[in-house]
Amino acid sequence: MTALDIWCHIHSLMPLCDSARSACVSRIFLRSWRCHSILILTEETLGLTQKEGQKMDIARGFTRRVDYILKNHSGTGVKILKFVIRYHYNVNTCHLNSWLQKAITQGIEEVTLFLPTKYIEDYNFPCSILLDGCGNSIRYL
């Protein structure tokens, strides 16, 4: 077991927000954060606080931060993926599909997607991302 493996394990036990903050300290922490196995992406875990009249800023912040996290995540080792998208977010389904495509990899065990009813009526889950063995390990969808 290498030092990076140890750091990856430690980061996987930390809450996402704390793990991301620690990635600012050193390159080793940054590399190990990219292997974080639990991605729970909510307003709270992303450090977004809602103030009166700032709903659009929160929505843009959510999209920007999720894009950044998933762009910099290695994509491997994700065991749990959870998205909580609030009603007032105006997240484009193309963004959502690309996030799912990036995060759902072989070995994932749990995928949870909380969507407001305005999305449920029009959204078609991209089942093709579960092909090529990516969906074989899913225990909870």
Description:
This protein has helices spanning 3-13, 16-22, 27-33, 55-72, 93-103, 117-120, and strands at 38-41, 80-84, 110-114. With 141 residues, it is mainly alpha-helical. It folds into 2 domains: 1-35; 37-141, no CATH class. The chain has a 3-stranded parallel β-sheet, with no helix packed on it. The radius of gyration is 15 Å and the shape is globular. It starts with a helix and ends in a 21-residue tail after the last helix. This is At1g61320/AtMIF1 LRR domain-containing protein.
Write the layout of secondary structure elements.
Layout lengths: L2 H11 L2 H7 L4 H7 L4 E4 L13 H18 L7 E5 L8 H11 L6 E5 L2 H4 L21
Parallel strand pairs: 1-2, 2-3
Task: Report how far the terminal alpha carbons are from each other.
Answer: 32 Å
**Total separate domains:** 2
Radius of gyration: 15 Å
Helix proportion range: 40-55%
Please tell me the overall pLDDT: 78
- Strand content is 5-15%
Pfam families: LRR_At1g61320_AtMIF1 (PF23622)
InterPro entries: At1g61320/At1g61330-like, LRR_At1g61320_AtMIF1
Protein name: At1g61320/AtMIF1 LRR domain-containing protein
Domain At1g61320/AtMIF1 LRR: 69-141
What is the structure about, briefly put?
The protein is mainly α.
Descriptors:
single chain, 141 residues, mainly alpha, three-stranded parallel β-sheet, 6 helices, 3 strands, 10% strand
